[in-house]
Amino acid sequence: MNPPSGSENSQEPIRFYGRRKGKAIKAGRLSLLETLLPTLRIAVPEDARGIDPRSFFASPPDSVRLEIGFGSGEHLAAQAGENPAVGFVGSEVFLNGVASLVRYAQEKSLTNLRVFDNDVRHLLPTLREASLTRVSLLFPDPWPKSRHAKRRFVSPAMLDEVARLLVDGGELRVASDHPTYVEWTLLHAPIHPAFQWTARGPEDWHTRPADSIASRYEEKALAAGRTPVFMNFLRRARPNA
Predict the structure, then answer these.
(1) Which CATH superfamily is domain 27-235 in?
(2) How far is the C-alpha of 229 from the C-alpha of 206, rounded, in Å?
(3) What are the catalytic residues?
């Protein structure tokens, strides 16, 4: 899973680091990319602003959640299947992951799922303020070398943008099995004025949220002996105008 990096300067051009395609995609999934993906794909002009993400769905959902870098899509598909009244938007640039999610969408007949198969930073500015109830960033590429730190999605600029998009009381979920990314996240998110870290003790950050399933990346981390860390942050109430 390789979400795009954030930028400290919103005027810098968006650059994506990472793979866009892996091994050959099976014929069945290729067919779904041609037939089903177009019905799920989100396409918005980059200069658009104030879009209500509920408008992405044929029947407007009660609320909308975003998963950034959904990997193979098993977590996102499970969430969509368990919460039919909620709209789910998944962003992923890795074509093999998109093909996997589209297969899940077909198998589970998911109508409350939409896909942005591009760098999520092209989507975020187009959305209306306070239009998401949850943003999930699960096991992103840690970019562990110091010289690559600016490629990490978690940054002051991206936290500002997520804070803008979350409703008051909305949730930012970040999970990682890499100590560098955990430390980096905890250096930035808890001190951001819009977010409150919900952890009260070690069990809180070593326990996956009860309403979610283990993703393939979490299972790989556990199999390799790495310990996943789950960090949940609530969007503080906005000051009264």
Answers:
(1) Vaccinia Virus protein VP39 (3.40.50.150)
(2) 5
(3) 141
